[in-house]
Amino acid sequence: MPLVYVTRHLHFSAAHRLHSSLLNDESNAHLYGACNNPLGHGHNYDLEVTVVGEPDPVTGMVIDLKELKEIVQREVIDRMDHKFLNFEVESLQGMVPTAENIVIAIWQLLKDQFHTCRLYELKLYETPRNMAVYRGE
Ligand code: NI
Q1: In CATH, what number is assigned to the domain containing residue 109?
Q2: Which domain covers residue 33, as residue numbers?
Q3: What is the mean pLDDT of residues 12-33?
Q4: What distance, in Å, lies between the first and last C-alpha atoms of the chain?
Q5: Is 67 one of the catalytic residues?
Q6: Residue 26 has pLDDT above 90, yes or no
Q7: How many domains does the chain have?
Q8: Among 31, 40, 51, 135, which is disulfide-ready with 117 (CB 3.0 to 4.6 Å)?
Q9: Alpha carbon distance 51, 108 (integer Å)
Q10: Cα 37 to ligand 1 centroid, rounded to whole Å
Q11: Residue 105 in contact with residue 91, Cβ under 8 Å?
């Protein structure tokens, strides 16, 4: 059976501060620069969620894109949109909220949510030029 990859593009805005508890203040300031600002800063994140599966013989769909949108909205966007990621998102507590760590946290929130298909890849754009990709490995 043919496997098809289906992607939904979503968006959220959030604040974060890059600061590692494993480094001293001077090292944090040097490493993260303006992103170490104590009161944080914001990003308009773009998230691409790709699932893979076989098109259903009746509907022709791997997943109803409306359902995919509702799952990501409920599990990710409702938790992260307009939040200060360092303090307000449970799954990011204790880690530096880089795009790398955020995309891993999003994977954990989404990986068990699909039944007719499986989560294949996440792309998280922190800016139009910077993004992190995760495939759950
Ligand atoms: Ni930032």
Answers
A1: 3.30.479.10
A2: 4-134
A3: 97
A4: 25
A5: no
A6: yes
A7: 1
A8: 51
A9: 14
A10: 10
A11: yes
